[in-house]
Specification:
two-stranded parallel sheet, two-stranded antiparallel sheet, 4 strands
Amino acid sequence: MPMIRVEMMPGRTPDQKRALAKALTDAFIDTAGGKPESVHVVLSEVEPDAWAVGGELISDRTAKK
């Protein structure tokens, strides 16, 4: 069973998440083959204060803007 994991900031609507899961599943099937029902997509939302880039929390970066 293929598993696709996506970690992203919160803020997407359920419709956006549905569309993303469908697009990722379709891309996997088109590229690697298989059946859609075998592809698992896990969407994890990570808060900006728990994600860092370049040693700086995203929440700190957005506070500077």
